[in-house]
Write a structure and sequence with these properties.
By secondary structure, this protein is of the alpha/beta class. The protein folds into 3 domains: 11-73, Orthogonal Bundle (Arc Repressor Mutant, subunit A), CATH 1.10.10.10; 78-178, Response regulator (Rossmann fold, 3-Layer(aba) Sandwich), CATH 3.40.50.2300; 188-319 and 345-372, 3-Layer(aba) Sandwich (Rossmann fold), CATH 3.40.50.2300. It has helices at 11-23, 35-42, 46-58, 75-81, 95-110, 125-136, 152-161, 188-203, 220-236, 249-259, 273-285, 303-306, 320-334, 357-361, 365-372, and strands at residues 62-65, 69-72, 84-90, 114-120, 141-143, 166-167, 208-214, 241-245, 266-270, 295-299, 313-316, 348-350. Strands 8-7-9-10-11-12 form a 6-stranded mixed beta sheet, with helices on both faces. The termini are far apart.
Length: 385
């Protein structure tokens, strides 16, 4: 059998043709020989067989099942399954999570897919029951659009044991393929834009620039933002005013009492809109109001930010981008391949009242934002036919 390959064609392509001839003689659900058995049969390296098999996986002709082997797929069944995707929405979902979930639902509808939504309380029994329901409803994969960071270990174990692939919104050791973004680039914007927020406030003339965020040991995005903040503080020679705050109202009130000492020269970079609004409320109790007594910048541009008192200036990303990538990776994983974004997302800037930009610079604020590269997300006007 040594002369079976045509030297003018790549060997793995010819192996693929040979395997296809085997597939044509079998039925959907039948198991094909192992990589090493095929390599022995065709007298080639098992890596050549693996490359040929990966092409067949991409084409949907076969599927690999962890611990079981490689099986011939039913094209009709696969087509139907790829139209059904589950989404696990946590009962603690914040406004950002709900915006992401809504965006995923909108994209799925545009692609004529059915999104099966299940509410869960945790990633133990609640999520396991939900995933069993999704399997019964013929879903090919599931998406976790957001999760409470304190449930990280539960989530990792759940994803590892799930009977269908699960796409997640963060990078976990051993589950790098499950994230919608590559590990090498995920979260880098959080560090960069936190530092840029400090630079923005410094340009406005503030000398006391604080960071407030959740008290969380497992929150990778929080860690990246703290790095961005501390790097900025160190380079600027300012006092470090980083405050990580428990969820209790009294804890935020205590932080506000500490920071009110810098009234008139205080700017605050918030981890997200929720922490910014909590801080605004705590300062209101002390009789202080932004932007006259302090400035504050949120993160995510949720609906709550627009209706805060005063309306909250925010850094934010394009919700469509991560939503699209989560859905694409879920479908990719269902078909044996990883589909991830390879570049970190640029963020945008929504200028409202809370950040004191207009109060301190008036019409010149546009020049400063341009200098720093802080731009709002452009609106796309409908094209008239």
């Amino acid at each position: 059998m040594a002369g079976m390959f045509d030297r003018n064609n790549l060997k793995y392509q010819q192996v693929k043709v040979k395997i296809e001839s085997v597939i044509d003689q079998l039925s959907p659900g039948d198991k094909i020989p192992s990589e090493r058995d095929l390599a022995k049969q065709y007298e080639c390296n098992f890596l050549t067989v693996r490359k040929a098999l990966s092409l067949l996986v991409d084409e949907g002709r076969i599927e690999k099942r962890t611990g079981a082997g490689t099986f011939i797929t039913d094209p009709t069944a696969n087509l139907a399954r790829n139209k059904h995707v589950g989404i696990l929405l946590h009962t603690q979902s914040d406004p950002y999570a709900l915006r992401i979930a809504g965006s995923i639902a909108h994209i799925a509808a545009e692609q004529k897919m059915t999104l099966h939504t299940k509410m869960i309380q945790d990633y133990d029994e609640s999520a396991k029951t939900a995933i069993e329901m999704l399997v019964a409803e013929n879903c090919c994969a599931a998406i976790v659009p957001w999760f409470p960071w304190e449930q990280t270990n539960q989530l990792v174990e759940f994803v590892s044991q799930s009977p269908i692939p699960v796409t997640v919104p963060a990078v976990f050791a051993g589950l790098e393929d499950q994230c919608f973004a590559r590990a090498a680039t995920f979260g880098k914007s959080a560090t960069f834009y936190t530092g840029l927020s400090g630079e923005y406030f410094l340009k406005l003339g503030y000398k006391h620039i604080a960071f407030i965020g959740p008290l969380s040991a497992d929150n990778d995005i929080l860690h990246r933002k703290i790095i961005g903040y501390t790097n900025f503080i160190g380079q600027s020679g300012l006092d470090n005013l980083c405050h990580l705050i428990p969820a209790e109202t009294q804890a935020m009130d205590k932080t506000a009492n500490k920071l009110m000492a810098f009234k008139g020269d205080l700017a605050v970079i918030a981890y997200d809109d929720q922490h910014a609004i909590r801080f605004l409320t705590a300062m209101h109790k002390l009789g202080l109001q932004a932007p006259q007594d302090f400035a504050i910048l949120g993160y995510n541009n949720t609906d709550a930010a627009e209706h805060a008192d005063p309306p909250l200036s925010c850094l934010y990303g394009d919700y469509v981008h991560p939503s699209q990538k989560m859905l694409e990776n879920a479908l990719g994983l269902a078909n044996g391949k990883v589909v991830q974004t390879s570049s970190d997302q640029s963020l945008f800037f929504k200028l409202r009242e809370s950040c004191s930009g207009k109060l301190r610079m008036g019409d010149k604020i546009d020049e400063l934002l341009k200098e720093l590269g802080l731009n709002d997300l452009p609106t796309h006007e409908p094209v008239n036919a």
